Amino acid sequence: MTNLWEDLETGPNPPEEIYAVVECLKGERNKYEYDKDIPGVVLDRVLHSNVHYPSDYGFIPRSYYDDEDPFDVMVLVEDQTFPGCVVEARPVGLMKMDDDGEQDDKVIAVPVEDPRYDHIEDVEDLTQQTKDEIDEFFSSYKNLEEGKEVETQGWEDREAAYDAIEHAQELYEEEFA
């Protein structure tokens, strides 16, 4: 059985085009996580706060980030996909975030195969409303979980996302190759 974190390439042309493995779905409160030991997507928890994912959310294969997890990616979609779906995506920005004292940044990406996002090349092409919704979600999604503290730290451009993806690929190679 294929392990989507270890067996799938990071993308067809990383860091400019990556694969995003979807775990959590736009509009839902379920927090799914890919379990490489099964391998498959499992329900980790239901979000305690009354918020929902503003878009599909998952991880980049063959990546490992400073929080000692696969690198997180939010793929902007009109309609949700499904847990375990692999989306070819273009990174357009990076949202900096601290989660309980660990750097837990998020790549923001758009699907390569959706013409609605062809004009989105960099974080400044996103509407302020889209950025505000993503920021609000990550600022508040753990509010009702005891002892959890999250701080969003602003937006960086596509080049910063590329650098962070390359960093995550290097950490993966160091840790698992």
TrEMBL record:
- What cofactor(s) does the depicted protein rely on? Mg(2+)
The residues that the entry says bind Mg(2+) 2 are: D72
What is a GO molecular function of this protein? magnesium ion binding
The superkingdom listed in its UniProt entry is Archaea
Write out the residues that bind substrate: K31, R45, Y57, Y141
Keyword Nucleus attributed: no
Extract the SUPFAM superfamilies matched here.
Answer: Inorganic pyrophosphatase
- Top-level EC class: hydrolase
Gene name as annotated: ppa
Which GO terms of the cellular component aspect does the record hold? cytoplasm
Q: What does this protein do?
A: Catalyzes the hydrolysis of inorganic pyrophosphate (PPi) forming two phosphate ions.
Q: What is the first-listed, main subcellular location in coarse terms? A: cytoplasm
Reaction it catalyzes: diphosphate + H2O = 2 phosphate + H(+)
Q: Does the keyword Magnesium apply?
A: yes
The protein in question is named: Inorganic pyrophosphatase
UniProt xrefs under Pfam families? Pyrophosphatase
Protein's cellular compartments: Cytoplasm
Organism, per UniProt? Answer: Halalkalicoccus paucihalophilus
- Which residues are noted in the entry as Mg(2+) 1-binding? D67, D72, D104
Tell me a GO biological process for this protein.
phosphate-containing compound metabolic process
HAMAP family named in the record: Inorganic_PPase (MF_00209)
Q: What Enzyme Commission number(s) apply to this enzyme?
A: 3.6.1.1
**Subunit note:** Homohexamer.
Name the family the entry cites.
Answer: Belongs to the PPase family.
Q: Which UniProt keywords apply?
A: Cytoplasm, Hydrolase, Magnesium, Metal-binding
